[in-house]
Amino acid sequence: MPPFNKLPPEISELLNIVPSLLKKTFPIPKKYRGALPSAVNELSHLLTNKRGDRSLSYLGRPNYLSAYLHYFLPWNLYRLCFLLPDLDLKLNPDDTIADLGSGPLTFASALWIARPDLRKIPLEINCIDRSSPALEAGIAFFSALCADAGESVNWKIKTIREDIDFRRQALRNEKKTNLVCAINLFNEIYEKIPHNNTEKLKQTAANTAQLMHSMALPDSSILTVEPGVPQSGKFISLLRDTFIELERPPVSPCTHSETCPFLGSPAVSQKKRWCHFAFEAADAPKELLRLSAAAGLPKERLVYSYLLTGQVSQPVKKNKNTNNALRVISDAFPLPQNRFGRYGCSSEGLVLLGGEKKRIEKIHSGSLVPVSEFSLTGVRDVKSGALILEVK
């Protein structure tokens, strides 16, 4: 996974043309352009603090679909393009992908932008969503994206209009695939659960994992990406537990199959810490930043939580001695005595990386770092309970 500090130039160039490409593909009549920022703001509230007022067919309304396409789609593409380049998705020619809740083909477009190594191989992507207008818009945008880059399309995109019921064990007529993914889908379910109802959230995560597992071939991967808010992080951690029970080990961001440090630790839960990653949005397309400001939704940072699981294995082995890396999971923050720190996740649980400011700032959030670069102090942080490691 990249260190969340800079996109490869080719990916950045493609993302920079997305706003203008959206304008050409989905032109807004001049007399309605001024209403776009307010529609974006209204939809943002419906997707967050006013989700109870949102109908299931909200993307069927032209003003909301337009707001989604011109604002949420490019931001979601930008976010995914920091994650996808280095994920080990294990895709080969003629493999099939199932994309749950695909909306306007966000994942397919992000994969095409972020993974030039996959553009030349034939893939089939089954895009499943309840909204026909969103799927149709996604086909139009994906075609325009490929045409603008002057590249032939080697992927077969199949749209499937279907509601996704996570109480069922499989989708209707759905074949097992080589990659099952769901991007920004489950928050529409778990955010309706009271945040203190852990058992209900746990059952929802278990149902979700069972469904995705049922759709995946034994040697396939499963990818889930959600907004980086506390409830998302908790849901992802619970999802991870069920996948381990199904003998699908976590591949990323986890470096181990031990108990998630964010589950069952009073020191962690009381401080409301959760697994998520953040990066600066300063290099986002200027036109997108201007629209965000006009909508009253300026973005300086983007955050998300995610989980990639691997192929079905023999019962997942839990051996702390085999782990030799940790994942950095926080920004740098000041510590006593003019030192700085970052939190990390390891087979030992939550760890606190401490050292001089310039040394700590070189370690970016999301980085995978060898444990050998640190000295084990044997001391735990009083505030978080994390095991303290000193940068060598």
Please explain how this structure is put together.
The chain is α/β, with parallel strands linked by helices. It folds into two domains: 301 residues, Rossmann fold (3-Layer(aba) Sandwich); 72 residues, Beta Barrel (OB fold (Dihydrolipoamide Acetyltransferase, E2P)). It contains 14 helices and 15 strands. The strands form two sheets. Strands 1, 2, 3, 4, 5, 6, 7 and 8 form an eight-stranded mixed beta sheet that branches. Strands 9, 10, 11, 12, 13, 14 and 15 form a seven-stranded mixed beta sheet that branches. Helix 2 packs across helix 8 and helix 6 runs parallel beside helix 8. The protein starts with 8 loop residues before the first helix and ends with a strand. The model has no long low-confidence stretch (mean pLDDT 87).
List the SSEs and their pairings.
Layout: H1 9-16, H2 18-25, H3 30-33, H4 36-47, H5 62-83, E1 95-100, H6 106-114, H7 116-119, E2 123-129, H8 132-148, E3 155-161, E4 177-183, H9 187-190, H10 198-215, E5 216-227, H11 230-245, E6 250-252, H12 266-270, E7 277-280, H13 286-294, E8 301-309, E9 325-328, E10 333-335, E11 339-346, E12 349-355, H14 357-361, E13 368-370, E14 374-380, E15 387-391
Parallel strand pairs: 1-2, 1-4, 2-3, 4-5, 12-15
Antiparallel strand pairs: 5-8, 6-8, 7-8, 9-11, 9-13, 10-11, 11-12, 14-15
Helix pairs in contact: 2-8, 4-5, 5-6, 6-8, 10-11
